[in-house]
Batch of 3 targets.
Target 1
Amino acid sequence: MDFEVSEKMRTVIELMDEFVEKELIPLEPEFLRRPFREMLSVLGEKRRMVKQMELWAPQHPQKYGGMGLNLMEFALVSESLGRTPLGHYVFGAQAPDAGNIEILHLYGTEKQKKEYLKPLVAGEIRSCFSMTEVEMPGSNPVMLETTAVKDGDDYVINGQKWYTSSADGAAFAIVMAVTNPEAPPYLRASMLIVPADTPGFNRVRNIPVMGHEGSDWSSHAEILYQSCRVPQKNLLGPEGHGFVIAQERLGPGRIHHCMRWIGICNRAYALMCSRALNRVIEPGKKLSDMQVIQSWIAECGADIQAARLMVLHAAWKMHTLGTKEAREEISLIKFFSAEVLQKVVDRALQVHGGLGMTDDTILAFFFRHERAARIYDGVDEVHKLSFARRVLREYQGKRVK
């Protein structure tokens, strides 16, 4: 693969790095103390600044107001913005809207694009993605209890979802529900647009995650669908193709997440090195003089570099050959990058000692909220099993000399 970064992208990344450093990182103490909803005004002003700089919605189509960057280019952007929890939101590149925009762009009707896609890309509304269920295994996405039954010109949806991220304040949800229960497992579910003000769409609560329930975009909700009626025209793509669409959404999404994790690793690594160089542990001696700390710095540096190159290679392969051809690389980066993320953040927190446990730095936030990296979008263990099985099939019956 070609590792050269274009002059255009070098300029874009430099501008984003500077904006993150000067405009967003200084907001983190307030972000850690206040509900996200109370920060919407100041973040809205930052978003307007980003739009004036023509850096808004980097990965979304130019036709709808984005920058139109390809997957490789956005991977670099995601790394830059990932250094702060506010980065992707302020630049209009945040999940779950990013994935929903991809679905609407690929499968939405012209009416759906006008009503939902355009204002979503513009940042005028937000959305949520409703797939994970309370009683069903998230690692097996074809097992769903939520149903959408045809009744006249409508679908009637019943079921319970949770970890519907950013449902608090969202204008609509994209819901995965079983529409064809007699079909083969991978052709049973469909995706439907459900406006949040539809009767029967009930946000039960924001789920407390590691003790924090969050608000607005920075939250995860439990949703109860009770005879929730939407017109059949709200179907996205062909009926029964929900799983196929979900896979298309998840492939690029894993690149986005993994490069965001690399950005977090870079931030935690910088904080760790700075702390080691400045923390006096006895007269004339600092943390950085200890061999164990030097070893951690070397190991974390190697791990970050390895994870970064793996993700960029997966992005390149997906961009050039397609998602199907990059399945093995996607499985590898998902569990490897998540493990590197947890290791680097944990080491950085350890180097900070008691300070690392507080919200006086961003490390405790990363530790709380990024632990889920090893769970969502497929638990690490499932990705490992999937990769190993594919590799072993290639060697089945072969004589290796």
Target 2
Amino acid sequence: MTQIKTIIVFFFIVCFETKGQGFLDQITPPWGYTFRDWKGPPIDVIVYIPHSAVESTPILMVVPGASRDAQRFHASWLDLAKKKTFIVITIGARKRYFPDEYSYNAGRVISSDGYPMDESQWLFSAIEPLFDDFKTKYRLTSKNFYLFGHSAGGGIVHRFLLFKPDAPVVKAVAANPAFVTVPDLDIQYPFGLKNAPIEKKSIKKWFKKKLAIVLGEEDLGPRTKPLSNGAMANVQGENCYERGNLLFSAVKQESKKQKVDLMWSLITVPGVGHDNFKIAPVACNFLFGE
């Protein structure tokens, strides 16, 4: 009889916990899914939801670098997410579908041949629908999200905020971007804004974003990809540290010219090079507080 009572009590405890935590069904492997509900190619999504999370827990979206190693970039945020209680979703844009810097770093706005892509096909156009899909899938209630990208991912982040100025982003970090887009209408996109399909008012909105350019002070080596090691990128500087500083300086100058209050921050990290793992804690402090 005692054994039966124990089983019944255990059953009710399990049912209560399952009902209370139903929105966290997938905190065990495989930790993710493939997002297909947009006009472009499928995008992998890796998920981490801390055990202490609730429906309204903040959500961070992580954009990997050129390696597209979503698991490695995802892993660099897990301990931070546990300590500060935020959800992490890392996107995986496979090289099969996004094979070069035009389709990845530059957001698939133009092809490698210079032809404009339909906006529904931009990589930038997948970000907000992916966020909405994720919330629905896990029954979460956050109305906005935080955004982090490193290297090529840092390029995506600062361009995404330019091309999608009304996206529900609370704060963002573009860390060690491989090459940058400066607010200059005489320089061809993706290095400047010439022929970029944006409105001038989007530039002003861009300046008002809570975006931090986070740079490792030892990130002094050359890049190896065609665009980020090409002539236009090298005009921006010999390395990511110089290019990130150039971006912030150019934006600061242009925002002053347009009489717009600049909300960007520049954060440099001593003793750190092109290292996502070591940059992440500094970025986390900017995004979620120390």
Target 3
Amino acid sequence: MSRVKKGLDKEDHKQDAVKSPNALSSGLTRRKFLSLSMLAGCAAIGLPAKAHAINEFKGWPGSYGMLTDLSACVGCRSCEKACNEENNMPSPERSFDDGSVFNEQRWPSAKALTVVNRYNNPGDSSGPVYRKIQCNHCLEPACATACPIHAYTKTAEGAVTYNPDLCFGCRYCVIACPFNMPAYDYESAFEPKIIKCFFCYERIKEGKLTACADACPAGALTFGRRKDILKLARKRINDNPKKYIDHIYGENEVGGTSWLYISSVPFEQLGFPTNLPSKPLIELSRGYLSTVPVIFTTFPAIFGMLYALTRHRDKESEEGHNQHKEVDNE
């Protein structure tokens, strides 16, 4: 089979990305944690009692998307390998050609931003169905809505990016995600970090394909403008009504996602959540947020801002100390 339509749109995209703040890094000591907590508590006392819902995110016109045709995936895991290499992640305990990984249901983690699982196909005994799993990059991401410190950014290209240097480890995003995607790195308790797919943001800004789409040998992944991807998905379903379920998963779920799926097997049989609303979660939570006591909505934001500020000062102090050492060595 030829490598069909990996990228629908070859034109140089002219959208400007919404960039996250510059990276900073420092540790969080016990004393610092307690100090920030007291400061945030004092600051919260004088805040007004009325809470407001966070502003809505809107999907960008002309943003990119990915279509996964589950009927075409052969389970080769080339996408997993390409993702691993692109993100400079450590080699897995079992090699990418080790089929024994399909004996269990895996999920993206701090060690793998995407995984492929195998499912039985009750309607076709000729072979199983494979599903690639990663962040779906919602058009109005619940993770960004839930984050009190704005560590998440919905970019013009469609990717939902994350700035680990702003994160203070509240994990609200983990709870908020309707797809259970963000993974928390528990191995670094004092350097909290969320692990997720970033839609190869740097690559697509340069007009390249994502690493996974570029590596897929079966044509199961098609990258392009989301509006074009939707047309392609609908055409495949209309041209092959006996092959595909008449549903594009991600077209409307929770307001729509950048990652779309078509399948010959009902999505609920492949582990997809199928009880999701068509409206973005922020619209459904607006009434709830207005009744939440102010301490629960403002305290995390204040704590996070103070935490980020302290990390910035620590970084400047560390850089100054290193410069003095260099001067002394001269």
